[in-house]
């Protein structure tokens, strides 16, 4: 089952088990992001992804150049947190496809607003062998125009689900990034951008691999 298929199945199951009134509030929050055109403000193919200097799971700062580890290509993906079931599905699929990504001369980098301690928990939980970096206070994602605040209605719902996003992120902002993924060249040029306002959607690894394969042919 592909990532896209598994996400769709998970979403269908979740929607079937969430009360209608709650589901309506969640759908309204997603629609508000779409209406705000947040996707349009995010970086696009042809833009340059700016560099960063973010702490890894051990707290040491890592730059984009460091994270690429000399590779000509990179896959930079943002996930909401280890508390998000859709993120966990995505991370597991990325780990499974990591050998194929690396075979195409690309380095995979995941970025989350969670604190390094919490991102370490996620890394260990899924046995992730790619870099996981913490974007404290969403500073980097904000630079990319991809940050939004969860409305009060969603904070209340998450509280009912037992999710304390503020605790995971180490602040009281209740802000999250779009679950975006960028395939880039080493100089930061964006070859492919996927910046969904709908948190249940992610860029499928099959698409990532297709973009990278085209680069091999072009070379």
Automatic annotation (TrEMBL):
A Pfam family reported for this protein in Swiss-Prot or TrEMBL: AhpC-TSA
> Which portions of this protein are annotated as coiled-coil regions?
none
Which EC number(s) does UniProt give? 1.11.1.24
Give the GO cellular component terms, alphabetically: cytoplasm
SUPFAM superfamilies named in the record: Thioredoxin-like (SSF52833)
Say if the entry is tagged with keyword Disulfide bond: yes
Query: Would you kindly state one Gene Ontology biological process term found in this protein's UniProt entry?
Result: cellular response to oxidative stress
| Thioredoxin domain segment(s) | 43-217
Which superkingdom? Bacteria
Q: Does the keyword Protein biosynthesis apply?
A: no
Which keywords does UniProt give here?
Antioxidant, Disulfide bond, Oxidoreductase, Peroxidase, Redox-active center
Q: Which GO terms describe its molecular function?
A: thioredoxin peroxidase activity
Q: What EC class is this?
A: oxidoreductase
Name the chemical reaction catalysed here.
a hydroperoxide + [thioredoxin]-dithiol = an alcohol + [thioredoxin]-disulfide + H2O
Family label: Belongs to the peroxiredoxin family. BCP/PrxQ subfamily.
Its function, per the record, reads: Thiol-specific peroxidase that catalyzes the reduction of hydrogen peroxide and organic hydroperoxides to water and alcohols, respectively. Plays a role in cell protection against oxidative stress by detoxifying peroxides and as sensor of hydrogen peroxide-mediated signaling events.
- Protein name from the UniProt record: thioredoxin-dependent peroxiredoxin
Originating species: Neolewinella aurantiaca
Q: What taxonomic ancestry is recorded?
A: Bacteria, Pseudomonadati, Bacteroidota, Saprospiria, Saprospirales
